[in-house]
Description:
By secondary structure, the chain is an alpha/beta fold. It is 42% helix and 15% strand.
Amino acid sequence: MGEATIRDVARRAEVSVASVSRALNGLNNVRGETRERIVAAAKELGYVPHAGARSLSLARTRAIGVVLPDLHGEFFSECVRGMDREARRRGYLLLLSNMHDDSEQAAVALRAMRGRVDGLLVMAPHITLESLERALPAALPAVLINAPGEVTSRPSLRLDNRAGAEAMVRHLLANGYRHIVHIAGPEGNVDARERLQGFRDALAELAPDMPVRIITGDFNEETGEAAARDILESDAPCDAVFAANDMMAIGCLHTLRQAGKRVPEDIAVAGFDDVPLARYLALTTIEVRIAEIGARAVSRLIDMLEGKGPGAPIELHEPHLIARATTVARAGVSAHG
């Protein structure tokens, strides 16, 4: 008799091949009694999953599928740099795909990974939780990054966006700024929503009399430039801009300086993410250690693939304020972090 296959185990345990795959991959969406039956059947047949991790295909690819909303820009390149570093360290390759802002494209990208990879890393802050769960191949182990909503079906890494936005508002108020405009990210994006909520909550708590002024952007430099033009053309006072990401902050910074405004003496500018360019522009921002999050997501997924279990369902990462020259304290105000 030849070597036992995953299908032999499924027949012996009287379950689907997908259930065997989930149980032997250490995923937690298999009932305890079913898992015991599958493990017993595998032992009886002498079935050994490769390195304790199997998708439905029988040969391991030692590849990880990475599906991102975009591949353009410093945020995503930093994230992929961290992923690649950890994957190479542990003997895996990355296959990258781009889902853009489209849940249908997300489903296509995720389906295309089946059979080509051992597991998935998915960053989809801009599509609904229902669309994401429907699109994820059931038998493929996956780790989600900044998923929309509270995902419990798959392990996920989340960034505490609200805490980051609140820290920035505290910093700007402590440094004497009183007319803060927030350039928000796209409305359908969970990171943008949480950063906006953190901004609103912090103002409501710390400066309830201050007007809340929001300009909607799309996380690209061009909307930062457009927001700066709006601010310059408006009669409403503005002494500080807090953009929901660094690229919009950089676009805003450029346009303000082109218009002859001094930063921060006339208008302070701050961002969120701490992309590498932010350091060179002396931009105050919220550091999220993007490459580390990418590396940690890879580490969690490979641990699952190698039978170590998924760990905590949600791992929350705390961002940190990085104060630089674009938000120094106003004249007569003692500097605060």
